[in-house]
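Q: I'm writing a short explainer about Penicillin-binding protein transpeptidase domain-containing protein for a general audience and would like to include a description of its predicted shape. Could you first generate the structure from this sequence?
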Amino acid sequence: MPGADALRAMMRAVVTGGTAERAGLPEGTAGKTGTAEVGGGAPHAWFIGFRDDVAFAVLVTAGGSGGEVAAPLAARFLRALKR
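A: Of course. Here's the predicted structure. Afterward I'll give you a sentence or two in plain language.
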């Protein structure tokens, strides 16, 4: 089972070269996209992640793809934070 450092590296890879690469997430963000299929409807889009000391989760019901819908919303949220 991977340790915390390995998990952080995998989540960072999702943002730098994986399914959230084109979401416009700020530098230092790590996360995981997801698309949850539901019976008879459009899938739910989700993205969970962290940046510095902020952890977040985005869920868009019937939104489609996590990488295309939820991750860009997380990027907007993170860019709006005052740092």
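A: For your explainer, you could say: The mean pLDDT is 95.
Q: Perfect, that's easy to follow.
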